[in-house]
From TrEMBL:
Gene Ontology MF, one: DNA binding
The organism's place on the tree of life at top rank: Bacteria
Keywords: DNA-binding, Repressor
Keyword Phosphoprotein tagged: no
Protein name per the record: TetR/AcrR family transcriptional regulator
DNA-binding found in the keyword field: yes
DNA-binding region extent: 24-43
Pfam families for the chain: TetR_N
HTH tetR-type domain segment(s): 1-61
Length: 277
């Protein structure tokens, strides 16, 4: 395992048990069996490590949701699948999701707050796309209220199993939330929110990313991966960025090769948007 990944994995175990503040760099290096110097070659500080873990966690969740909403061929069951992927993603990372939500609500760390705010804007844009696909013009006047209702459902029901240890039946929960969302979509007539109330500007790394930045991001990601089909596919996609010789079907296949790797979801998302696939 690459040292940076080892540090992130062991730090995640400690953060989930103790919280961010209670975990020291010394404890992390002891758990990894490395020196502090080796730690600082990978991360400048504990805060930088925390932000890297948050990025990995949020990027994976967002990439899963966005891929579903943009690529599902029809709208049937799209709302159910959206809820299912969202709760399944949190369920797979329950310990870290728990500590992250607690830390975020109590944090004075400006970088953490900004990160979470930016991811929130990204998720807003994807949920609005889903609302347009599922309900169309029927909710033109109320879709921003519906957006916040959907996010409220996700947050409130997440707290049940994150904080209270409530047994989670994902399928039953998602069926229930689809029914509730449909009732709201069909019954709301008095909108409170309008487009001008919404901050829908997209996270800078999505909107402003350049070809050169993506080439650099792939260079960094390749260093983290052992020899694999994902590493080979990333290198071919990097070549495509520079030479543009592959047809769309090949590019799509290469993206599918990397999309399900937990450390490649974000770059797959960025490349998919860049190649319009």
């Amino acid at each position: 395992m690459v040292k940076k990944q080892l540090i992130m994995e062991k730090a995640l175990e400690l953060f989930a048990k103790q919280g961010f503040e209670a975990t020291s760099v010394q404890q992390i290096t002891d758990r990894c069996g490395i020196s502090k110097g080796a730690f600082y070659l990978s991360f400048k500080s504990k805060d930088e490590l925390i932000i890297a873990l948050i990025d990995q966690f949020m990027e994976e969740i967002f990439a899963n949701i966005d891929h579903l909403v943009r690529n599902k061929k029809n709208e049937e069951n799209l709302l159910f699948d959206f809820y299912y992927v969202s709760f399944q993603s949190f369920g797979q990372h329950t310990d870290f999701a728990n500590i992250l939500m607690k830390e975020y609500t109590q944090s004075l760390n400006e970088q953490l707050i900004l990160k979470m705010h930016n991811y929130d804007k990204l998720i807003n844009s994807t949920i609005l796309l889903m609302i347009d696909r599922v309900y169309g013009e029927k909710v033109d006047q109320t879709k921003y209220d519906l957006l916040y209702c959907i996010k409220g459902f996700m947050r409130m029901y997440s707290e049940l199993f994150l904080y209270q240890g409530f047994p989670l039946d994902v399928e039953a929960l998602c069926r229930s939330l689809v029914e509730k969302t449909d009732l709201l979509a069909q019954g709301m007539t008095l909108p409170f929110l309008q487009k001008e109330h919404m901050d829908l500007s997209i996270f800078q790394i999505q909107g402003d990313v350049t070809k050169e930045q993506m080439v650099s991001m792939i260079d960094e990601k390749v260093k983290e991966l052992e020899d694999s089909i994902q590493k080979e596919s990333l290198l071919l996609l990097q070549e495509q960025l520079q030479k543009q010789t592959f047809n769309p079907a090949i590019i799509k296949g290469l993206l599918e090769n990397i999309r399900n790797h937990p450390h490649c979801k974000w770059i797959a998302y960025l490349l998919g948007r860049y190649f319009n696939l």
